[in-house]
Amino acid sequence: MSQSETRKRLLSGMQPTGTGALHLGNLEGALKNWVRLQDQYEMFCCVVDWHALTTRYHETSKIAPACREVAADYIAYGLDPKKCAIFIQSHVKEHAELHLLLSMITPLGWLERVPTFKEKRELMAEKGEGDESVSYGLLGYPCLQTADILVYRANVVPVGKDQAAHLEISREICRRFNYLYGPVFPEPQTLINEEAAVLPGTDGRKMSKSYGNAVYAADSAEKVAETIKGAFTTPTKLRKTDPGVPEGCVVCQWRKVFDPEGYRTSWEEDRSGERGCMQNKKELTELLNSFLEPIRKRRAELLSDPAELDRILVDGAERARATASETLRLVNEALGLR
Ligand code: TRP
Question: DSSP character for 239?
Fold first, then answer.
């Protein structure tokens, strides 16, 4: 038996962002873990362009370039296209076929109750977009996500806590399918990474492109310096000699992540008033830039050589399709359609 047959299967995916490049929260919170998992699992990593259409159907031209950037970030950050299939969701049409079939057995009520759907609907109403912009596709988001997972008969899905409700629905749809037509799919388990570093945004809120509080893989050294200059620190530490509270300071929190050995000394000095926020920011900027430099370089290389990135994505899609088409064969057989 080949190694791939003995290993469990893992599927993961990210939406292309509006800005293209991933931010440090995505990299440290999710991707770092994926990189670690690629030796353990038979792994499929996609960029979900169809999911982006659920809310960004009015700016479709930005989606494909953003997907390429995310794929470049996957690789620049350490996902190895030889070890794991890296591809764009829409390049593997089997996701769509399975989504359609699963949509027939997914009760409407399950989808209407998903918290992210309710939130997005409220957000769109706030923006004055009216209920007409809440599409059938948006409601079906978790069903499409389920197809992404089940089409590879994946055993595990590494996601953040924010995706727990989606994964719960995926398991329910999976059980319903297996109950109705026979056991085709293993029930996918959520792999929550408890150790994942939570990097707050520079303003202390959740790191998000919409808050403008993030550092991106694509940022220049100067841009990183500028962003860190504006980061929140201990509000009561106005002078270097004032006592800092590292637990509540964004710069100190980031330092802990990017300097896991040395941060303790800097924290103590911050607390005791031996060091000021300026020095903290300067050192953090240096740490971040030396961490990001090779990633920046690799992603720029990949993006400047479209043929090479195409080759990786075509190869990834082919490998994904091999498994996905076998699943659809089993599914159609179970349904009695073929
Ligand atoms: N909903 C996920 C997110 O926003 C992205 C996603 C789509 C996904 N399909 C998936 C994640 C399948 C894991 C598995 O992050």
Answer: S
Q: Which of 78, 32, 23 is nearest to 200 (CA)?
A: 23
Catalytic residue among 32, 120, 237, 281: 120
Chain segment 260-276, per-residue pLDDT in tens:
999 999 999 999 999 99
User: Which atom of ligand 1 approaches the CA of 141 most closely?
Assistant: 1
- Domain containing 255: what range? 219-297
In a domain, residue 204? The reply is: no
Predicted TM-score (pTM) of this structure: 0.93
**273 & 323 share domain:** no
Helix (H) or strand (E) holding 200: none
Mean pLDDT of 4-9: 81
Distance 188 CA to ligand 1 centre (A): 13
pLDDT digits (tens, 9 = 90+) for 205-222: 999 888 889 999 999 999
Both 97 and 194 in a single domain? yes
Residue 11, SS3? strand
Burial of 196 (0-12, 13-18, 19+ CB in 10 A): middle
pLDDT digits (tens, 9 = 90+) for 57-86: 988 999 999 999 999 999 999 999 999 999
Set 83, 93, 206, 240: catalytic member:
206
* 5-15 as b/e: b if 16+ CB within 10 A: eeeebbbbbbb
- Could you tell me if residue 62 is inside a domain? yes
Dihedral pair phi/psi, residue 206, rounded to 5°: -60, 140
